[in-house]
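Final paragraph of the annual report: two paired records, presented back to back.
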Amino acid sequence: MISFSKEDIFLVTGASSGIGRASALQLNELGASVIITGRRQEKLQEVKDEAVNSENIFIESRDLAVDIDSHAEWVIELSKKYGKLKGLVLSAGVSFVKPLSIVDYSSLKTAQDILLNAQIMLIKGFSNRKAHTGQSSVVIIASDAALYGVKGLLEYSSAKAALITAGKVMANELYSRSIRVNTISPGLILTPMVEESVKKGETNADAVQYAGKPEYVANMVSFLLSEKACWITGQNIIIDGGNSLPNIHNKF
């Protein structure tokens, strides 16, 4: 069984909803202390109020799309405030759905900044010896859209694909510092972002019947952060309910 102590401190981005929220709540339930961050203070407070051990949830609201170059120092400052971090969960994200015909440099740069560059800067800060405990772990939430050519997701998919590759590079670089780095590529997960996408007609409503729950991904997050995954690094783990397999749902 996976368990943590309150001395095990994790930073979870995108913790106000979806996979980030589920991961933060599960880590807290397993005994860890969790710093949760997101743009909306009131949503973060809801997570804290829902937590089993709410006294070990700490709110630090921050917009990761702003002042990206300062993220590394921010992580170091958090470690000074709360103690060295045992792990980092990067779950913050935003949907980018548009056809190639209306993609421009500005929108490409925005997607890269939010989905790739901000994540790298956060890991840079975490990798500083002042920030992490050693024998620590980074889990990056990517997407299976990075692996398959889903139309309309050029900006999103290309940024996530780069993120998966960046994760492998950082796993190689940070191994000597006893930091493991892995990515998880979920399939369609029923999050508020996906629900909004369905309302806008950007996501096929019929596909939602096969969508997974955020908790399915949170289970893998907790495992990869634990000592039970001590020999796993540089991997991209697909969690999609078999959706990548031909005719999988016809078998059930």
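The closing record of the year follows.
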Amino acid sequence: MAKNVELLLLKTVETLGIVGDVVRVKPGYARNYLLPHRLAAKPTPTKIEALKEARAEAQAEMSALRSAREQLIEQLTDVTVTIQRSCNDQGGLYGSVTQPDIADALHEAGHGVTVEYIRLSHPIRHVGSYPVPIQFDKDLRIEVTVIVNADHELPDTAEPEEPSGKAEVEASAGTGEDATSAKSTAEPSANA
């Protein structure tokens, strides 16, 4: 099995590190992504020294970004967004609610959350209320509530209609014996 290779990051890679970091990655990741995109290079003392200023700038940017995300998490405390979709009578959606839909709803509510931070394990395919995690960093995480409403009134929520008086009289007039004998005589004729 191939050993990890050591590389110096020339640019910040969000899931890996900031500019000037020396990281250990798998050879395939280095060969197929980092090196061709000029995001990393072999570490040398001169390259490390040359990136010190860029590293300090990147650390300042990361600090500012972290404080902005902490403020956004405070704003997202107890936030609920509502999305309306077409569905069938059982509440099953024609389509689904996905991360972009939730990001758009949050943006309309005045919260700048982009798609990559919404952690939805699977698309929402039914009407209801769902907790959706938003994770900016390992320790910067919050859940918002997403309510998916139907675009029409569902039969489950509507009150059942009262049967007419005539149907009640006919149902109460028959006895259990008459109903079973009528059923047993009807079955052979239906099969014939």
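The chain has two domains: 5-67, 76-150. This concludes the annual technical report; the extension proposal builds directly on these records.
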